Amino acid sequence: MPHKAVVIGAGTAGLVAAAALSLAEPTLRIHVLDRDELPRGPENRRGVPQGRHAHLLMAGGLTAMEALFPVSVRDRLLAAGAHEIALGNGMLARTPDGGWFHRWKRSGPHMITCTRALTDWVLRQILTEARPHVSVHRASVEGFLGDARQVRGVRLGQETAHGLGRELAADLVVDASGRGSGSLAWLAGVGITGVEEKKIDSGLTNATRIYRIPPGAESFPLTLVQANPYDGRPGRSAMVLPIEGNRWMVSAAGTRGGEPPRDPEGFLRYVLGLPHPVIGHLVSGAEPLTDVAVSRGHSTDNNRRYFEKAGQWPERLIVLGDALATFNPAYGQGMSVAALGAQVLAREVQRHGLTGTGLSRRVLRGAARHVDTAWSTAVGVDVLYPGVVGARPGAADRVAAWYTRRLTRAATGTYEAASALWDVTSLTAPAARAMRPGALLAALTGPVLPQTSEPPLQPSERRILEQLGSAAHRPSAPRPSHTT
Ligand SMILES: Cc1cc2nc3c(=O)[nH]c(=O)nc-3n(C[C@H](O)[C@H](O)[C@H](O)COP(=O)(O)OP(=O)(O)OC[C@H]3O[C@@H](n4cnc5c(N)ncnc54)[C@H](O)[C@@H]3O)c2cc1C
Predict the structure, then answer these.
(1) pTM of the entire predicted model
(2) Full domain range(s) for residue 50
(3) Do 422 and 104 form a contact (C-beta atoms < 8 A)?
(4) Does residue 414 form part of some domain?
């Protein structure tokens, strides 16, 4: 009899976990369960409210996906309208200290930009068309079956597709049900309690609006004004990124006390009032296609559950994705950490078999190493913001922040420093990469090229910006409410 696995959640983590399992054990029957009715196309849905905000797919996550799926995820995303952005020269980014990253001849790593709905839809398509043993069902999971030694399946709620029944037995269960996962309560139901949990909340609010790209501005680079965690004030940032359908997604984000507003005038005022008004100028001349979508508070905190350290852990149960750890989304890491965790799952199942003793522990420990990198990036900065809940910056945090600040400054004009920063933020290397001799030397000596206080635009880009920005100076345009 072929083995059977249940994956809870058909978000990015659930889809990459299903891909990993089918790669490692091709005859495995995999039931992916989601309480949402999944849309037929790339559409937002209730179970993934964060899908309305910017979702960058970093190089580390994309490489993991390429290894897990039977066809190229990159090619399919690009064919569906996603964009590939070179970190070395395909974007404009203003750093917290005011300098802009140099645009290098070398492209550096790439990231993918599109809506989150498109990413999930493409992954779903690839999975179900190429892996006949994978099926996706509507079902709401309400608990685990089994006991503290071994999980044996899941208990299902009322809202469940016909034919599944109320209990679904499985040889392996993967919880990929996201930030709101019931795993702590479900574990308690099989006798496991006391899992250590940490929450660090900078009170980040995200506000996002979609615009039609103005004619002629299609090739304008992704533009980012980063938040400043070093001046003791709330962090405020924004980004314009190209997405499918000839559209820009404009996402603003503010920590506690610096939240972007929902009303369109206030939103525009907010981006115009950032330390550099470039994003406000771009959108002043663009046609909005949606309202401003806002997510606040708990949906953006850093929340980690240390399952890998639990004194007792049942066999045949794995937790991945946001159910395992979430990060301040400003760093664009969640989907990549999920994919890297799924890669660990594939490797361990290939080595030890689906029912091998200790599989769950090994996967959780391996996945935790990728969580560590993303966690240190996000939390290392978040602890510095005023009003952060759950942590206070200690001496080690201050040293780490000092170093990150130096390295970022060096990265504006020294390739070695930029490359180290990209590798860590793209999750292609662990955090220790930032301390290698070349990066260390650059951080200590500062940038080789002089810092610029204006974005490094090519002449054609400057013309586009001037043209679009002229709308911001018309009398009816909202004035910035605050500048720093
Ligand atoms: C504002 C914001 C911006 C972000 N930007 C980025 C970014 O730029 N880059 C990046 O990599 N990450 C980003 N993230 C993080 C990213 O959204 C997640 O890390 C990533 O989607 C992985 O999520 P997941 O699949 O674990 O959970 P989710 O995407 O939340 O999916 C969970 C799924 O489980 C289902 N479900 C929940 N409970 C049950 C149940 N009991 N039974 C059955 N089904 C259930 C839900 O319906 C849902 O489909 C951002 C997050 C936020 C909040």
Answers:
(1) 0.95
(2) 4-76+111-200+299-379
(3) no
(4) no
